[in-house]
Amino acid sequence: MAGVVGSHDLLLVTLDTLRHDVAVELAAAGRIPNLAAHLPGGVWEKRHAPGSFTYASHQAMFAGFLPTPAAPGPHPRLFAARFAGSETTADGTFVFDTPDLVSGLAAEGYRTVCIGGVGFFNRQGALGSVLPGMFQESHWEPEFGVASPTSFEEQVARAEKVVAELPRERRLFLFVNVSALHQPNWFHTPGATREAGDSRATHAAALEYVDRHIGRLFAAASSRRRCFAVVCSDHGTAYGDDGYTGHRLGHEAVWTVPYAHFFLEPGAS
């Protein structure tokens, strides 16, 4: 990353609450072809989330602690704050001297842009302003939120607008928190009803919905120059697993997440 930062645009997409097992199943079954086309080897990497819910996980990721490979380490990190004694800072790590990655990239001349999704990015209160407040520019509308059946399409349209308006010579760090996977997601399954509620199947349908539109996001992110992309979940969620529902709890369905990073060539879709 030390050689990528400064020459490439950067894209970080968090597929909020996406379960690892669902992501793996859909990739193997050919149900998310647009994402699978960019996954190294066509498969997701199994990793452990840095937090069990959105706020905690994103605070960690913005400090450089992306999900950790689910195998004994230590594992060198892509990004890290300068910190004496760090065992995961390697020769190729992009090291920043600011409190977080976002301001570290801003110090390198990047325009930092957040397109929020779930409530922790809605700027409707003090808590919902902390994470988007790290960025030079942040966007959130009710249409981007968890209750919107067209949330990801709306987020992508805003991303396209942001990219189109940015001077071509300016490097971009674009962050998108995708809310579509989060509860409620029942409306992504044809014929489903609010009364039937959310399930592992509707969660999967929401990922298929995201896949149908993510090519536009990749195309926008790589429209100006080569782009390095990280696509991952911030944590999973439980749908009755061992009696658990939701997240902010210590279950395997919550702590295990899908992860991938890859380059998007100019004009990628």
Commentary on this structure:
- The chain is an alpha/beta fold and 269 residues long.
- 28% of the residues lie in helices and 21% in strands.
- The protein has 8 helices and 12 strands.
- The protein has helices at residues 20-28, 33-36, 54-62, 101-107, 127-130, 151-165, 200-221, 252-255, and strands at 9-15, 45-48, 68-69, 79-81, 94-96, 111-115, 137-139, 172-178, 227-232, 238-241, 244-246, 256-264.
- The strands form 3 sheets. An 8-stranded mixed β-sheet has the order 3-2-12-9-1-8-6-7, sandwiched between helices. The protein has a two-stranded parallel sheet with strand order 4-5. A two-stranded antiparallel sheet has the order 10-11.
- It starts with 8 loop residues before the first strand and ends in a 5-residue tail after the last strand.
The number of helical runs is 8
SSE pattern? EHHEHEEEHEHEHEHEEEHE
Principal-axis shape: globular
Question: Overall mean pLDDT score?
Answer: 95
Relative helix content: 25-40%
Number of strands: 12
Protein name: Metalloenzyme domain-containing protein
InterPro entries: Alkaline_phosphatase_core_sf, STM4013-like, Sulfatase_N
Task: Identify the notable features of this structure and list them briefly.
alpha/beta, 269 residues, 8 helices
